[in-house]
Amino acid sequence: MAAALQTAGTLTASSNLVINSERFRFGSLLRSPAGMKGTILVVKSDGRHTVGFNAGLRGANLIPNAVAAKTEDSAKSTYSKPGHEILLFEALREGLEEEMDRDPRVCVIGEDVGHYGGSYKVTKGLANKYGDLRVLDTPIAENSFTGMGIGAAMTGLRPVVEGMNMGFLLLAFNQISNNCGMLHYTSGGQFTIPIVIRGPGGVGRQLGAEHSQRLESYFQSIPGLQMVACSTPYNSKGLMKAAIRSENPVVLFEHVLLYNLKERIPDEDYICCLEEAEMVRVGEHVTILTYSRMRYHVMQAAKTLVNKGYDPEVVDIRSLKPFDLYTIGNSVKKTHRVLIVEECMRTGGIGASLRAAIIDNFWDYLDAPIMCLSSQDVPTPYAGSLEEQTVVQPAQIVAAVEQLCR
Amino acid sequence: MSAFSAVKSLSTPTITTRSTPSSNPKPSFPFPFPSPASAGAGSLRHSAAIRLNSSSPSPLRAVSSHVLSDEQRVTSPSNHDKALVTRREALDLYEDMALGRSFEDMCAQMYYRGKMFGFVHLYNGQEAVSTGFIRLLQPGDAVVSTYRDHVHALSKGVPARAVMAELFGKTTGCCRGQGGSMHMFSAPHNFLGGFAFIGEGIPVATGAAFSSRYRHEVLKEASPSGGLDVTLAFFGDGTCNNGQFFECLNMAQLWKLPIVFVVENNLWAIGMSHLRATSDPVIWKKGPAFGMPGVPVDGMDVLKVREVAKEAIERARSGEGPTLVECETYRFRGHSLADPDELRKPDEKAHYTARDPILALKKYILEHDLASESELKGIEKKVDDVIEDAVEFADASPFPPRSQLLENVFADPKGFGVGPDGKYRCEDPKFTEGTAQV
């Protein structure tokens, strides 16, 4: 599998998409050390605006051309077909559709998912194909239709509940916390809740405070819940499929600004492990842990850092709960310096938990205090200039690495 | 018979409140229930004949139970009543109610002896609702309840041992001791819980009903019931002011889901009188506002409840959609065992104690010669034995070991993630001991 994306002139390295088939054996519990060595997963996303991408985007802040990682081993490509180019929202749809084909119990529940095709077109065309009962347009009643999804999951179905914007799921907090997370436990294991709760979140472009929320910090304490954040078309499809197949309730965090990323993904069936992190760029000097949209700010900063002579290792943690302490730990053990870059609020965010986990497990390997760059503890302002200030920018990342590596 | 074969299509009943001269003058309580118009009142068929009085809300008045009143001579066989319950059915109803009552009384005893803890909400007095509805269900039908769920579980067939052991917090309880009084679940009996927050079970019930329709229409699975599997959602008067109630009425009717919403209106939400909390206290009227039938029924009379229940369940099963049933009932004890119950007036309690559903059924059975006094005593003895056995079983059962702590957090324990050594946490030998760091 050769070229993922070609962007004329701007990319500094070859574009390889390397996949280790180990990763995609669903259900394998042990991660063989040998398998780990060759699993450099390099994903590039074309940051250039393509057709359909909102023209008003401040390109400077958004998608850089990601720096390709240095590949350690020879490309272990097991895919013979050429793959196909796809946008992230289409990749989500593809994953969803494949699972709906595979298992008739998979259904979609949400506002405007059916006839409208989804507010970000993730479910476009599915209602025509599967009917109004399998792709259910709900009234505006998040708490109740999420609870309905849970009741359906308890009685044999595998619903995918969409929050039109993740922030709307605040209204469903009762059901997500009490029933989704806890019901398997309080029933003594009698009922499983194989539900997927997904939707776009994160800071967009001047969408205002209530539409710019990051709920991953609010949900992370709920026992019994798994949380993943997708960031590329490849892992979007893979995580969507894995989440649907999982017997656990999974919250899949998508980002409003990433839906039009384009990438070439395999034609073959694949999933991404829900509990694993993704190595984006191998390096030596510092470990940068990030997820979702901030991955792209990090990669943009990485370009600058490379020019300045640094060699950052970038890990997209992907699994927000639980953390993949193996990948993260290996990285920490190698570089001894950690920077966390997240879009979550500073207080009680994913970064805060990640910091604690690293300190608990890898204290002896640290040469410097863990730095964490998060969003400001501020309701996201409407004004563009202020909104920019609330989110971590590449320049801050560069400055942080410089400070860490002094 | 196809699931949607012709069943009497029930027009949305319009019901007004009427005063019924009662030959038994009863103290007038501010109860917002219409007097049942006839022996079969409360049944959907009868209520369709009554017109809605659109003038100002009628004054609240007491309801007299026609089973107990002298108006209707109980000894003269009413075809309607005779047709409803055979001897066998009557004894089943009696035993179920007696089981519920004895169980709850034993719970109170055990609580005060320090065998169970926390919040325990007892069902004494409301047995007619549970028995009247749940004994009509088929195995594939589901029940969703609230925190006052012990008796619903028992009616659904969950063994008394399993419920008592759960209350004692033992590992042999129906939820392995992890749920407790407010979280009774039983998958084999399709008992979907047991919810501590009011209202949060109603969407779950709606989901189960959705599942039923989905299985029928999308998966093309035929239910042994011959129609759709039905879900019953039980909840109280306080819940009827909660958003989830209204949202689910809307969705259930919108999609014609096979569900019956059963309101156990016992007039009190802890210390909050229904009348103080609700702008329009007549709950069944809110069904038609969403396009579904709303039916009031005397919840202290198991036969009346059963009659209404039959129709509502049949409606749901045949695909006609949901029904909202409001049962006038009463809890003889406080909200929970921790509730001093100081706000309810003694004469209100006395009024309802006089309408004890178990005594009423007993009287009915004896007067209709369905069984003898000694047979009923035999049933009571049998029930007592079952309860005693349940207590002994619960007492003798072990508490959950430490190793059980983490077992059911995830259905797939890979959800605990990968540890620093590269292995999944759940493979850590200490994991099952509950001493692993997660």
From TrEMBL, chain A:
It catalyses: N(6)-[(R)-lipoyl]-L-lysyl-[protein] + pyruvate + H(+) = N(6)-[(R)-S(8)-acetyldihydrolipoyl]-L-lysyl-[protein] + CO2. CDD domains: TPP_PYR_E1-PDHc-beta_like. InterPro entries: THDP-binding, Transketo_C/PFOR_II, Transketolase-like_Pyr-bd, Transketolase_C. Pfam families: Transket_pyr, Transketolase_C. The keyword Iron-sulfur does not apply. One of its GO terms (molecular function) is metal ion binding. The keyword Plastid applies. Its cofactor is thiamine diphosphate. It is an enzyme of class 1 (oxidoreductase). It is found in: Plastid, Chloroplast. Its EC number is 1.2.4.1. Keywords: Chloroplast, Metal-binding, Oxidoreductase, Plastid, Potassium, Pyruvate, Thiamine pyrophosphate, Transit peptide. Gene3D superfamilies: 3.40.50.920, 3.40.50.970. SMART domains: Transket_pyr. GO terms for cellular component: chloroplast. Residues 86-261 form the Transketolase-like pyrimidine-binding domain. The pyruvate dehydrogenase complex catalyzes the overall conversion of pyruvate to acetyl-CoA and CO(2). It contains multiple copies of three enzymatic components: pyruvate dehydrogenase (E1), dihydrolipoamide acetyltransferase (E2) and lipoamide dehydrogenase (E3). Tetramer of 2 alpha and 2 beta subunits. This is pyruvate dehydrogenase (acetyl-transferring).
UniProtKB/TrEMBL annotation, chain B:
InterPro entries: DH_E1, PDH_E1_Alpha_Subunit, Pyrv_DH_E1_asu_subgrp-y, THDP-binding. Keywords: Oxidoreductase, Pyruvate, Thiamine pyrophosphate. Residues 68-81 have a biased composition (Basic and acidic residues). Residues 96-400 form the Dehydrogenase E1 component domain. GO terms for biological process: pyruvate decarboxylation to acetyl-CoA. Its EC number is 1.2.4.1. The keyword Repressor does not apply. GO terms for molecular function: pyruvate dehydrogenase (acetyl-transferring) activity. Its cofactor is thiamine diphosphate. Coiled coil: none annotated. It is an enzyme of class 1 (oxidoreductase). It catalyses: N(6)-[(R)-lipoyl]-L-lysyl-[protein] + pyruvate + H(+) = N(6)-[(R)-S(8)-acetyldihydrolipoyl]-L-lysyl-[protein] + CO2. Residues 1-41, 55-81 are annotated as: Disordered. Residues 9-26 have a biased composition (Low complexity). It comes from the Eukaryota. NCBIfam families: PDH_E1_alph_y. Tetramer of 2 alpha and 2 beta subunits. The pyruvate dehydrogenase complex catalyzes the overall conversion of pyruvate to acetyl-CoA and CO(2). It contains multiple copies of three enzymatic components: pyruvate dehydrogenase (E1), dihydrolipoamide acetyltransferase (E2) and lipoamide dehydrogenase (E3). PANTHER family: PYRUVATE DEHYDROGENASE E1 COMPONENT SUBUNIT ALPHA (PTHR11516:SF60), PYRUVATE DEHYDROGENASE E1 COMPONENT, ALPHA SUBUNIT BACTERIAL AND ORGANELLAR (PTHR11516). This is Pyruvate dehydrogenase E1 component subunit alpha. It comes from Phoenix dactylifera (Date palm). The lineage of its organism: Eukaryota, Viridiplantae, Streptophyta, Embryophyta, Tracheophyta.
